[in-house]
């Protein structure tokens, strides 16, 4: 039986850093790779900007990319 991860937010995939009093969030690609290692299919759907998912698609390796199903803002507003 396949193991499936369903995320309704990109929050578990973000890292928060603070430098000089400025807080920024960035995508934690290692978290994506860890999910791909633990699960057969990873479904992520949220109202995050489509650019977030485009960035993820560009930076996921070819071996990992087929495991991900990404549904961004455009999917929910169609």
Description:
The protein has about 80 residues and is of the alpha/beta class. The chain has helices at about 30-40, 50-60, 75; strands at about 5, 15-20, 20-25, 40-45, 70. The strands form 2 sheets. Strands 1-4-5 form a 3-stranded parallel beta sheet. Strands 2-3 form a two-stranded antiparallel ribbon. Helix 2 links the parallel strand 4 (about 40-45) and strand 5.
Low-confidence spans: pLDDT under 50, at least 5 residues? none
Give the overall shape, derived from the CA principal axes. globular
How many domains? Answer: 1
Element-by-element helix/strand order: EEEHEHEH
Distance between the termini: 32 Å
What is the averaged pLDDT score? 93
Give the structural class: alpha/beta
What portion of the residues fall into strands of 2 or more residues?
25-35%
Question: Share of helix among residues?
Answer: 25-40%
**From the alpha-carbon coordinates, what is the Rg to the nearest angstrom?**
13 Å
Q: Say how many strands there are.
A: 5
Specify the number of helices: 3
Largest sheet: 3 strands, parallel
For the largest beta sheet, what order do the strands appear in spatially? Answer: 1-4-5
Short description:
This protein has 78 residues and is of the alpha/beta class. The protein has 3 helices and 5 strands.
From the structure above, extract its key features.
78 residues, alpha/beta, 3-stranded parallel sheet, two-stranded antiparallel sheet
Show the helix and strand layout.
Layout: E1 4-7, E2 14-19, E3 22-27, H1 29-38, E4 41-45, H2 50-59, E5 68-71, H3 73-76
């Amino acid at each position: 039986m396949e193991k499936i991860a369903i995320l309704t937010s990109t929050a578990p995939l973000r890292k928060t850093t603070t430098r000089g009093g400025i807080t920024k969030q960035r995508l934690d690609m290692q978290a994506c790779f860890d999910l791909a290692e633990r699960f057969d299919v990873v479904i992520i759907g949220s109202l995050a900007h489509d650019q977030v998912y485009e960035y993820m698609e560009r930076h996921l390796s070819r071996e990992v990319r087929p495991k991900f199903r990404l549904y961004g803002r455009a999917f929910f507003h169609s």
